[in-house]
Write a structure and sequence with these properties.
8 helices, mainly alpha, 167 residues
Length: 167
């Protein structure tokens, strides 16, 4: 991000629409992801936080790059459909629906709401917040809350497991 150098995967048989999608995605980061904020957030809160930040930032920059270059919408849709079908996101929809909240959010925003990613009622409020994020500050505010919520859920789950083991 600092030098705005695009790094693309070197896949042997990539479709032209996937190339357009990947380039569009990286140009989105180059145009819209601030180095200072990205670097500070990643350094101060660790690798798990970075994963959350990356998912929400990807949703924001992909929306912004497609708004700036509407011709990218079709390549993004076609590419993500193919990646999903090929198991790129860790399996088929049934597998994805068993994944963590942040992984399901990632697939939801990349592949679209019509593919059937499932969310608990208590988690659906994140979707419109992420969908309407326009600034880096919006992303950080969402991720701070989401990350803290998931840490608390994990802490509670760990405590329950410890109590079960004692019984």
């Amino acid at each position: 991000v600092k030098n705005r150098i695009l790094r693309l995967p070197s896949w042997s048989d990539v479709e032209s629409y996937t190339e357009d999608h990947l380039i569009g995605h990286e140009v989105g980061h180059a145009l819209f992801t601030p180095f200072e904020g990205w670097h500070e957030a990643v350094c101060s809160k660790g690798a798990a936080y970075k994963s959350y930040l990356n998912v929400v930032e990807d949703a924001r920059i992909e929306k912004l790059i497609q708004r700036k270059y509407p011709g990218l919408r079709t390549p993004f849709v076609k590419s993500y459909r193919k990646l999903l079908a090929d198991g790129f996101f860790g399996g088929q929809l049934n597998d994805i629906n068993k994944m963590s909240l942040i992984d399901r959010i990632n697939v939801y925003f990349k592949c679209g709401q019509s593919i059937g990613v499932k969310f608990d009622a208590e988690d659906t409020h994140w979707l419109p917040r992420i969908d309407t994020a326009e600034t880096w500050e919006d992303v950080v505010a969402i991720v701070d809350e989401l990350f803290d919520q998931e840490l608390e859920k994990k802490r509670q789950s760990d405590e329950e497991k410890e109590e079960e083991q004692l019984l």
